[in-house]
Amino acid sequence: MACAIRYSATWISAVADPVIREALLSALGKILEAQFILSTREQLKPFECDGLSVYKALPMVAVLPGTVKEVQAIIRLCHQMKVPLVTRGAGTGLSAGAKPDPEGLLLVLTRLSSILEINSATQTARLQPGVRNLAISEAVKQHGLFYAPDPSSQIACSIGGNIAENAGGVHCLKYGLTIHNVLQVSGFTMAGDPVTIGNGGLDNAGLNLLPLIIGSEGMLMVVTEIMVKLLPLPSQVEVILAAFDSIEKAGQAVSNIIAQGVIPGGLEMMDNNAIRAAEDYAHAGYPRDAAAILLIEIDGSAVNVSEQLQSTRQVLQDSGVTSVKIAKTDTEKALFWKGRKSAFPAVGRLSPDYYCMDGTIPRKSLAEVLGYIHTLSEQYGFAVANVFHAGDGNLHPLILFDANQPGQLESVESMGAKILEKCIEVGGTITGEHGVGLEKIRQMPMQFSDDEISQFHSIKAALDPDNLLNPGKNIPLLKHCQEYRALAKNLQPNQLLIQHEPTA
Amino acid sequence: MQDNAHILQDQVQQAITEQQALCIQGGNSKAFYGFAVQADLLDTSGHSGIIEYEPTELVLRARAGTPLIEINSALKQHQQMLACEPPCFSQSATLGGAVAAGLSGPSRPYRASIQDSVLGCTILNGQAQILGFGGKVMKNVAGYDVSRLMAGSLGCLGVILDVTLKVIPSARAEKSFVFTIEPGNSPAFINDLRKRGLPVSATCQLCAQLMVRFSAGNTEIAELENRLKEHYSFIEWRESQDHQFWEQLREHDHPFFDQASTLWRLSLPADADIYGLADKPEDVLSEWGGSLHWLKTTKSADEIFNHASVNNGQATLFRYPAAQQPATIFQPLAPALEQWHKSLKAAFDPLGIFNPGKMYTQD
Fold it and tell me: What residues in A contact B143, CB-CB < 8 Å?
């Protein structure tokens, strides 16, 4: 769930040990200037949650180191004192992966925001974790290059956070996720020992550990430097806006486009509720009466683009499209995308709160799952706006509700759990790009067996034996798995959400 | 088509009971790669067959023992392919072996590596548990990404039972051109081709000859020569008619690899030097835009590993004479990383059943 705003979580009393807290603060004072150590309630309040504000807690202490050396010293201190450590980037995550631990230290890496090197010969950039995603493409544009993964939060989110979550975006279908666009990460183990994964070449020495670290939600190491792969900017980009009178036809068109051998740069779908919200908000020129629209971006060389444009138009006609618009100017292209990229805030205006899902399904099941969501929407009485990365089968249904109405949050969460269950049933996953964090930890036992979850715990114990890095996220405890499975069936999913706040 | 998962599981269970190590083998096409393993054989070749292939989903799932040629043939019928063009080295090569070896072919920098293509897998771990990770969708961030960790693990963590891969549409047309260009200038030249939007899909440099393959739609390939004329009149180039070239390169059937009893493979940043390690320029063949090098040399292993390390890359002693017992085959690891390798090996295979010593002598 994401962005379900305006309602407060349940607080229980703090658990931080005052003796440990004082000792920690005193030791931190020898590493960092006082202004970068935050310990009062007022100072800590802005860091109580990430982009998923329903899960919040004040950390025992938050620190903002400005050098890699300081980061190492802080990690060593936490290791020595056995203090849990949660790493935070820009705080835009949507699964509470960066929710502070009330007994722990919050390591905020936003001050490490330098682009260390841009190498146009090797088409790579070396970055500190606090560099904003969009800032990478902006900085390398002068070399005719770009960094491909582009999550919707790219204006604010940091590359360090992208590493933690294996962030995706609208161009993943063609250019891959973060994992496909990173060559090397360096940082520290929880013992504070330096470790570098990957290298400046395209192959790894030893085990292929980059996929283990990228997407590990800050639970295996702290990353302080990243080398990303850059791609040449395509010489031509065309954006098609295709409207359909039924969701099924739009879904089928997506499969037909892929089947003809074209991999578009982006292939996004929105349903009528999302279209109207986005159009009212961004005035993107979307047809308000369409049941669904597809946004199709085709990029590459001029000849290739023109060839693919022609074949895609034909496929759209054969799939029963009702109207096709091709953006004529760069402004119009940007406008078509603005509607899509602002869909979340646009939908946010329709209702006091919304609940954002992130399930991913095989493309062929699109119509079936959307039909199921529609049925649930009627059963539960909540409107749903559907926005999704259709090319990847990554759904973002936004369930509209009002958290101030007693029982609505619980009801929405149970509807969300049913949607995720359906995603797994058709061969998909509970999370395509937002991560598990705390939000989807109860759904993990729906996707994984106890043996698989035990294997995850063994991996965690192998790399972080004291369980100090971001404890309690991503992988549920085995003793809770049966309970979660039962809860998912009995539709009482909010029962285990106990939030903590220290009495700082 | 046969599902032998439970037979393999029983064999692993028996090995655990008897505390007997196992040497995992698929098609036995890459046994030369890595250290030799002295252990009982666990033959996965019988666990074979494509389980699921949906061309419109761009997804194929097959059992580990499925021959690569069977997979390539199934994909070809639908004008699709494995993005990384993995080498076979023998007709018997299997999907499980290709993934476990983690070797990618000529298209790797321009399409994907084999690990990039892995969407999910089922494994047998060292406790004889059958575990599934990842899935069959392009985006999946639930739990740790164990399926891609299996790619290149050389069977040291577990037995791969089946793999789900993302596949790609084959290009409608292809042409290759030979450019006369000094190796030092090639990476910049290849970057220039790509910045002009020319659809480079593989490169190979030997001395002053750079072969470049272009893959795209019919019109684009038909117009390629005109575009090359427009931009590259200042260098010598011609179209290549050697249609077997890329397959021969991938399979090491190219004459460069003849009589190479000792062959090094170095993965380096494209701007790093390689010729300092060679006795003569013709002992280096470079692929991947200048970031993968095959090297025949008399230099010591220490010198080669050190060169790779200083240049932020890695080296592997890819082939060596059967009689030789090299001390090191893979790039030595930094201390923290070496510790992680040991811990992860123990996390998957606590009794050290699978392929002991295959990757590092101490694993």
Answer: 436, 444, 447-448, 452-453, 456, 474-475
What size, in residues, is chain B? Answer: 363
Which letter does DSSP use for residue A9 in this model? P
**Cα–Cα distance, A392 to A166 (Å, whole number):** 15
Let me know whether A219 and A121 are in one domain.
yes
Q: Say how many domains are in chain A.
A: 4
Which of these three, A111, A138, A157, is where a domain ends?
A111
pLDDT of residue A488: 64
Higher-scoring residue by pLDDT: A153, B348 = B348
- Residues A175, A234, A92: CA angle, nearest 5 degrees: 45
CATH 3.30.70.260 residue spans of chain B = 173-250
Paired strand residues for A227: A126, A184
- In sequence order, the 6+-apart residues with CB closer than 8 A to the CB of B282 are B206, B207
Say if domain B173-250 classifies as CATH 3.30.70.260.
Answer: yes
Q: Are residues A341 and A353 in the same domain?
A: no
Contact A361 B268 (CB under 8 A): no
Q: What angle do the packed helices A247-259 and A302-318 form, to 10 degrees?
A: 140
In the three-class reduction of DSSP (H, G, I as helix; E, B as strand; rest coil), residue A17 is classed as: coil
Q: Which residue of chain B is at minimal alpha-carbon distance from A366?
A: B57
Instruction: Note whether A228 and A335 are same-domain residues.
Output: no
C-alpha B348, offset from chain centre: 23
Tokens linked to A363: 């493309």
**AA identity, residue A473:** K
Same-domain check for residues A162 and A207: yes
Average pLDDT over residues B153-180: 97
d(CA B93, CA B30) in angstroms, rounded, equals 8
Indicate if ipTM > 0.95: yes
- Read off the tokens for B358: 């295959």
User: Minimal Cα–Cα distance from A226 to chain B, Å?
Assistant: 13
Q: Do A459 and B144 touch (CB under 8 A)?
A: yes
Strands in A236-285 per DSSP E: 236-244, 266-271
Domain that holds residue A98: 11-111
CATH of region B5-169: 3.30.465.10
Q: What is the mean pLDDT of residues A375-388?
A: 94
